[in-house]
Design goal:
The complex is a heterodimer. By secondary structure, chain A is an alpha/beta fold. Helix content of chain A is about 45%, strand content about 15%. Chain B: It comes from Cyclopterus lumpus (Lumpsucker).
Chain lengths: ~900, ~425
């Protein structure tokens, strides 16, 4: 079993049949169908035009849904392409647009995609498997049978609005897809399906739903859909049919045996999931609910008809003999069961039959443990975080939207569905970071909410008797508090102490790294509201604070325009590019880029340009250059990964042709800090935009103009390209304009005062931040002197002068003036010794001799060596002197840190 | 009434003395903040206004308090915080984070400490903190979530601010100052440092984000202010239990300060260093001499304390040396003169001892030190270096030994250069004695 789960899937794609037509111009052959077979396994899947398929998503965990329109390849047969019509999942609709739907999206709902930003040509190699898609009319309710594998289309989505899908058009389009019977459920064996485990088949839906979690193992297993019956659900019931067929032949077995066998299959297939389910639901297994029964019966009938119809439904062509024989055989000769090691299901069956004999009351559970161990052991080895793997299980178990709700708890199903949908909604609201990718359905999203989900599910189980409405209310009330206190941990302990049977749950969680940043970090909110500015000066101060976002960015119109047109053209073309922006600090580089992004976002909202992602990383806000990968990945997809893994994922994302990708705009602030010895971080950042399918625009910001020449090796600098922009320091007029626009008619400054500040700052650095800070300080000084009746209440020249003096004057001279007599004498001695030696450096010993002489001249008692050293150290601590380490004693060398003139000036002024 | 009487009742002298000791020690050892900061009222007002604006209006700020060691930077900040806490609005809101550059030696430790002091670790339950990167992201996110009007303002006090500037990339400073300059949670960053050139330590992008507010604590008290300060530090307050004793004590302090010798001693201290901490140390020494037998500080006490605090540590070491060790030092002095400060080895010193000239000098030295080793006046020993450079003419009568002693500091340094320790010298030379 474990060998299968570990196996890397290598799928082989082959055309079936002769090419239908040949396009001379493009030299392409059109085909009618494509066969996908997994290496080493005999079964193949056939994809035909008109069929709905799942296509590899960019992060493996969310396969895209699409319909095949054309299949074609080139002459050599190496390139296989498919033209598809896309469907979007709810999770792919931007969060902000989801509310346009006006209702809760169904978990299995997809939308007919009519946008234009997507490439409809995909590589055939990215096709995973066929999928069942049903079109529903606008009013028709979603069937809540809990089929996990059927997707429903009701509306179309053109990246702005949802529209009712033209049913005529779609029906004609969907017709080929509908021709296979919608038989997602396997039929049960004819034996009475009334035993408790009858719920098991439906839980297959659950295992399928678990697929999209970013667990590699699960994904791989998913990819093996044809091989492994549990995965076969995704291939529209083909494998189920096969299995049903096999089970037909086992009617001789008692009903319970048969069903437990089926369950065994399930648990063995997705061991982790199954185990969880059983452990947590074990008590309730005995519950039999009427509706399950009836449902199952229905499904059984359906399934049977499906089997019958299978033979004549072309898209569902299957190689029955291969899949059926091994299963059938064991039933004929149960003793020989173990002789088919390649068939996981048969092994499991064998085990069941053995264990049944030993412990009839709980054969399934007993066995499930054994069966699951291998995969459990393996979980930590998976390259992704084990938490995610575990999460898949938890999700499965918990989220009642998933078909698992049909398991014995199904009497509660609807209420539970409601609860969980509400939970998801809440979580979505809580999560600010996710923008486009987030949705209740999006499995990455579950990472943060895992604890909550889990605890809530535990609680759900605990309070099984509780009225569902009450439960909803209870949960709703709980979440808002999540920020400040720690409900999760409290709850966990509570529930675990109350219900010892849930220990397995608990055991799993401590091992998973609980991501701290997901714990809703928050500065507690203040108990009293912040006071609003009361007078003109306070108002001015608030407006002058660097943090206040100005209405516009004056004096950077040209730069704004350049960046805007650069990014806009890239987004519109769907290409990538790099831009390097330099300028001294405080010249508005980051502010301008962010303003550009705000404008572009607005333009995208009103659909002037295609939608795009905007991601921002700052070299200073990470601890290591390689953390850039982690941050980019996290902001892009919400995934957490180690630096190496994140780099690999990003490489894959930007390197591989992925259908339907939006342009990503990446802002890298403080680029120079991403420097590493091999410069691989910078290399990658600039290399990705050059890839054909990347659609990545990288804007980099740094202080130095010649950074590419100075620190980058050739191959990095060359990739960065020559699109550069340099922000010149502000001139005094610009600074004045900036302050004026910030003040925005608040009359607080005299005109001359403003001019003085801006001229002074422009002459020194041209740093707008400095300018604003000085103005702010000037308002404070003005406020202090406001008691003086002669002032006009405006900030005048004198105030500004005072502020400028405070900020620009060096403290050295004051410090020397304030020094004690001996310290001043020592400084004099230093200068005297320097003059004597003709050097700018002397040992303490030499200076001390001078000092003693000066003491005598001044008529003071000469000081001791210790005292002299202490004086010297004090001057060194202020950095008036530069000293060698004090352990050198009298031999330490002394230098002046201020100019001799300054010292003499300060001493003379005494 | 009875209480009043109690106050006026005479306590036994021992009781009074212990009360005085307790009260003054508290004052001198900085356990008790003064009611109002002296000499730095303007700075106090400035800082108080600034922090109040953060606490009340939610305005982010950054400020540096710069002043030499012992100038009262921490005292000023503590006074301001105490005054701030008196205001109800500020008290309820302000979160405080105190960091010290000597304790938080890198950003990782500093981040953990910040998280702990902000009580953010509650949000992660019992989670032991993950990686440094996670930690940083966590904190930044926390600060980013806040906004000016709704989150509680946080005050970050960075003691020994200059040491934070030595952290890698100045990540912590950049991020704190960046938050203080952007529309995130309101914070005030207060740095305390004694380095005047601290701004030059900051990277330019960090520097640009700093508001350039500096509060300099460079007070320039005159000697009379200094004397007044001594007086106030020593005098007892009115609420001292034994009124009579307090009056006596204060009168004695008054006479003490008027004494000429005391004034000289204090002036010498004043000339050496104006900071109050060294004065407190001096007064502490005097206070320790107060006992039941001697209830009051006498001028002699203060002079003695002054002498102790000015004593040359190197000269003191000579008192404990044996004759032979002194001889060795004399020999080293000779060698130092001969080789003009160049290093020499033990063999040379040993030879120098045996040399005829040194042998003659030896008994002389012994004689000399045999008589005078008790109390070599400090000022006389300091004549040594003077003679060295000013030429022998100035101190022609100074015998060899004296000169050598004056140069002990130099000799010791030479020894250190030779990697000798005193014990090593003595051990090696033990056979030579026989």
């Amino acid at each position: 079993m474990k060998y299968f789960t570990r196996l890397r899937v290598r799928r082989v794609y082959e055309w079936r049949g002769k090419p239908l037509s040949f396009n001379r111009k493009l030299k392409t052959y059109e085909y009618g169908s494509l066969a996908i077979s997994v290496e080493g396994l005999p079964r193949t899947t056939v994809i035909k035009t008109g069929q709905h398929i799942l296509i590899e998503g960019e992060d493996e965990d969310s396969p895209y849904v699409a319909k095949v329109i054309r299949l074609f390849g080139d002459e050599s047969g190496k390139q296989k392409k498919a033209v598809v019509q896309w469907f979007v999942r709810v999770s792919e609709v931007p969060l902000s647009k989801r509310k346009l739907l006006g209702r809760e999206p169904h978990a299995q709902e997809i939308f007919y995609y009519q946008g234009r930003s997507c490439d409809d040509e995909v590589d055939a190699g990215s096709i995973l498997k066929p999928v069942q898609v049903t079109h529903l009319t606008g009013e028709a309710p979603f069937p809540d049978s809990g089929d996990g594998d059927t997707l429903y289309v009701k509306l179309s989505w053109d990246s702005k609005t949802f529209r009712v899908l033209d049913s005529a058009l779609v029906h004609s389009e969907l017709a080929p897809a509908l021709s296979p019977p919608p038989c997602p459920k396997p039929s049960l064996p004819p034996s009475p399906p009334c035993s408790p485990p009858a719920a098991a088949p439906t839980s297959r839906g659950a295992t399928w739903r678990a697929l999209p979690t970013p667990d590699l193992d699960v994904m791989r297993r998913a990819a093996q859909g044809e091989v492994r019956p549990s995965r076969a659900t995704v291939s529209a019931g083909k494998a189920f049919a096969a299995e049903a067929e096999s089970l037909h032949s086992v009617t001789k077995l008692s009903a319970s045996k048969c069903l437990s066998a089926k369950r065994r299959n399930n648990s063995a297939r997705t061991p982790g999931v199954r185990k969880k389910l059983e452990l947590s639901n074990s008590e309730k297994k005995s519950m039999i609910s009427e509706d399950i029964l009836s449902q199952l019966l229905d499904e059984e009938l359906e399934g049977k008809s499906a089997v019958r119809r299978l033979s004549d439904s072309p898209p569902q062509v299957l190689s029955f003999p291969h899949s059926l024989t091994p299963i059938r055989k064991p039933h004929k000769a149960p003793g020989a069961l173990g002789t088919f090691p390649l068939r996981p299901s048969s092994i499991v069956l064998h085990k069941v039959s053995l264990s049944e004999g030993n412990s009839p009351p709980s054969p399934a559970r007993h066995d499930s443990r054994r069966a699951t161990t291998p995969s459990q052991k393996k979980e930590p080895k998976t390259p992704k975080e084990p938490a995610l793997g575990v999460l898949a299980e938890v999700d499965n178990e918990d989220s009642p939207m998933l078909p698992v709700a049909v398991t014995p708890r199904s009497s509660k199903r609807k209420s539970a569905q409601l609860v969980s949908s509400r939970i998801r909604k809440q979580l979505n609201l809580l999560d600010n970071l996710q923008d486009l990718n987030s949705d209740g359905e999006d499995e990455e999203e579950f990472v943060p909410s895992k604890k909550e989900l889990q605890s809530s599910s535990e609680e759900e189980e605990e309070e099984a008797g509780l009225d569902s409405d009450e439960e909803v209310v209870f949960k709703k009330g709980r979440y808002p508090a999540a920020g400040s206190r720690t409900p999760q941990s409290k709850q966990r302990t509570r529930s675990s102490s109350r219900t010892p049977r849930k220990t397995p749950n608990k055991k799993v969680t401590p091992g998973t790294p609980r991501t701290p940043h997901r714990a809703v970090p928050n500065i507690p909110s203040r108990s009293l509201p912040a006071r609003q500015p009361a007078n003109v000066l306070e108002e001015a101060r608030t407006r002058l604070h660097v943090s206040s976002v100005p209405e516009s960015l004056p004096c950077r119109e040209q730069e704004f325009q350049d960046i805007y047109s650069f990014v806009e053209s890239k987004i519109a073309d769907g290409t990538g590019g790099c831009m390097y922006i330099s300028g001294v600090p405080g010249t508005g580089k980051t502010a301008t880029v962010q303003e550009v992004m705000r404008c572009l976002q607005h333009a995208a909202d009103v659909d002037e340009i295609p939608p795009f992602h905007f991601i921002e990383v700052n070299g200073m806000k990470m601890t290591d250059p390689h953390q850039a990968y982690v941050q980019i990945l996290q902001k892009l997809t919400g995934q957490k990964a180690t630096a190496d893994h994140a780099a690999a994922l990003l490489e894959k994302r930007f390197g591989n042709p992925a259908p339907r990708k939006e342009t990503t705009v990446l802002l890298v602030d403080e680029l120079d800090l991403l420097w590493t010895r091999k410069q691989n971080v910078m290399y990658n950042l600039f290399d990705w935009p050059t890839r054909r399918h990347a659609r990545l625009v990288v804007l980099t910001i740094a202080n130095t103009m010649d950074l590419p020449e100075r620190i980058m090796i050739n191959r990095v600098a060359s990739r960065l390209g020559l699109t550069r922009m340099s922000f010149q320091p502000y001139s005094f007029k610009q600074l004045q304009q900036i302050i004026m626009s910030r003040l925005n008619k608040v009359k607080a400054f005299e005109k001359d005062a403003l001019q003085l500040v801006s001229r002074k700052v422009a002459a020194l650095s041209g740093d707008a931040r400095r300018c604003l800070d000085i103005c702010r300080r000037a308002t404070e000084i003005c406020e202090h002197s406001a008691a003086d009746p002669s002032t006009t209440g405006l900030v005048g020249m004198s105030h500004v002068m005072e502020a400028l003096n405070e900020m620009f004057s060096s403290a050295y001279i004051t410090a020397i003036k304030c020094a004690s007599l001996q310290e001043q004498l020592f400084l004099r001695a230093v200068i005297a010794e320097f003059r004597r030696l003709g050097l700018e450096e002397a040992t303490f010993q030499q200076v001390f001799v001078q000092h003693q002489a000066l003491c005598r001249v001044e008529g003071l008692q000469p000081i001791s060596v210790s005292e002299g050293l202490a004086v010297c150290q004090r001057l060194g601590a202020c950095r008036l002197l530069l000293l060698e380490p004090s352990r050198l004693g009298v031999l330490q060398r002394v230098r002046l840190n201020v100019s001799q003139d300054d010292v003499l000036y300060a001493l003379k002024a005494d | 009434m009875s209480k009043r009487k109690m106050e006026n009742t005479r306590l036994p002298v021992g009781e009074c003395i212990s009360q005085v000791q307790e009260m003054l020690r508290e004052r001198l050892c900085h356990q008790q903040l003064p009611d109002r900061p002296e000499g730095v009222e303007a700075q106090h007002k400035h800082l108080l206004e600034l922090l109040k604006r953060t606490a009340v209006h939610g305005e982010s700020n950054s400020v540096l308090i710069v002043g030499p060691r012992g100038a009262g930077k921490t005292m000023l900040l503590k006074c301001v915080l105490r005054d701030l806490q008196e205001e109800k609005e500020a008290q309820k809101n302000l979160l405080q984070v105190h960091l010290n550059g000597l304790l938080q030696t890198d950003d990782r430790i500093a981040l953990k400490e910040i998280t702990r002091q902000l009580h953010l670790e509650n949000a992660v339950g019992d989670k032991v903190f993950g990686s440094f990167a996670e930690n940083l992201a966590f904190l930044l996110e926390a600060l980013k979530k806040g906004d000016r009007s709704s989150s509680r303002p946080a005050l970050f006090v960075l003691d020994e601010f200059d040491l934070f500037a030595h952290h890698k990339n100045q990540t912590l400073l950049y991020n704190l100052l960046d938050v203080s300059q952007s529309a995130q949670a309101p914070i005030a960053v207060v740095g305390l440092t004694c380095r005047l050139d601290v701004l030059e330590l900051l990277e330019k992008r960090v520097k640009s984000r700093f508001s350039h507010r500096q509060i300099h604590l460079l007070s320039n008290p005159t000697f009379s202010q200094y004397l007044q300060r001594v007086r106030t530090q020593l005098s007892l307050p009115d609420h001292f239990p034994d009124r009579k004793f307090a009056l006596d004590w204060n009168a004695s302090v008054e006479t003490l300060c008027e004494d000429k010798s005391v004034e000289d001693a204090l002036r010498r201290h004043f000339n050496s260093s104006k900071d109050f901490r060294s004065m407190h140390m001096l007064l502490m020494l005097c206070l320790s001499r107060v006992s039941v037998a001697k209830p009051g500080i006498k001028p002699a006490d203060l002079v003695e304390a002054s002498r102790m605090s000015f004593a040359d540590a190197k000269a003191n070491m000579l008192h404990g040396l044996s004759i032979l060790e002194l001889c060795l030092i004399i020999a080293m002095k000779h060698l130092n003169d001969v080789y003009e400060g160049e290093p020499f080895n033990l063999q040379m010193v040993h030879n120098g001892l045996r040399a005829p000239a040194a042998a003659r000098a030896h008994p002389t030295g012994r004689q000399l030190f045999g008589q005078n080793s008790e109390g070599i006046p400090a000022d006389e020993t300091h004549a040594g270096p003077q003679s060295d450079h000013g030429g022998p003419a100035e101190v022609p009568t100074m015998p060899h030994g004296r000169q050598a002693v004056g140069h002990v500091g130099v000799r010791l340094a030479v020894c250190k250069r030779l990697d000798f320790t005193w014990t090593f010298v003595c051990c090696v030379l033990c056979p030579a004695r026989q």
